[in-house]
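Predict the holo structure. Ligand: S-adenosylmethionine.
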Amino acid sequence: MDYILIGSKSLTKQMIKEHNNGNILGDGILRVNDLSNTNDIFSHEVYKIDIETDIDYLSIANAIKKIIESSCFFKIKCFIRGSNNFNKNSIGYNSRDIEVNAGRILEDNGFKVDLEKPSVTVIVNVINNKSYITKIFGNYLIHEKNHINRAGFKLMEAFDYFKIDIERLGIKKALDIGAAPGGFSYEMAKKGILVDAVDPGLLNNKLIDMHINHIKKRIEDFSTNTIYDIITNDMNIFPLESARIILKLKENLRKKGLVIMTIKCINKRSYSYYMKQAQMELKDSFEGFEFKHLPHNRAELTMLCIKK
Ligand SMILES: C[S@@+](CC[C@H](N)C(=O)[O-])C[C@H]1O[C@@H](n2cnc3c(N)ncnc32)[C@H](O)[C@@H]1O
């Protein structure tokens, strides 16, 4: 089974190092044939290749025909990627043209399109003169327009990538440190979590009616007897300092409680140094460390760990 991994262009070297069996298809794009042994930190998207073909509408439609049932309701989502000289100008059409025209050919052949509630989404990654096609059940790429900032996306992505099931884990009470302007707190409150948000800075007005408890202080000046199910920490301070603050708060986190912490790195070469540093500092009290460069992370990584 082969996969396409997509990450940010500037992290291509790190992706290659992680997947030493990978073929580079473009900046930040790797094709790999095995994901099982890899701790995949740097890719943002992973697509199983169900079928590959040329990049004209007819070839794409014919390939899709082979992987979906004619009775299902489907939509096509296309991305054109690759090297700098491979783009919509060099091929003469754009991703929307591919979605529409391949979709029409399939409709003419009795297949049924449903853009709102498809039972199957067909992802077409057009990369340097080849199409790599992936079938995904359900509606892929539902974007939440209602958000506060980039940080909010980071937290949603962390829940998703680390497969954190809030209900199953019984996450009801969160301490969010470095909370302003409130992206993390907002996303957690929307999921029904009660949030204590610590930050000397102001929270966005949207958070006023959401039962978020803003403690307008530096974390060093905060103390409480509350026991939390999760601590999130997005403070813009050095990772070691940030990890030490988590250690000090560990009595306020229940056993098996989660920590999601952003590791702010000075530059992209220092990722592994700061990952190790934070893990060393926390390893006596925490376990289950996972690190991920999320799509909305800049020069930073997101860490998950669990209280022992
Ligand atoms: C990147 S912003 C956080 C964004 C936030 N997570 C969100 O979702 O909107 C970093 C925040 O860390 C806060 N911060 C830095 N040092 C802090 C400290 N010692 N105690 C509390 N907050 C701190 C800053 O005031 C700033 O608001």
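Helices lie at 12-18, 57-67, 88-91, 95-108, 150-161, 183-190, 239-248, 271-282. The mean pLDDT is 92.
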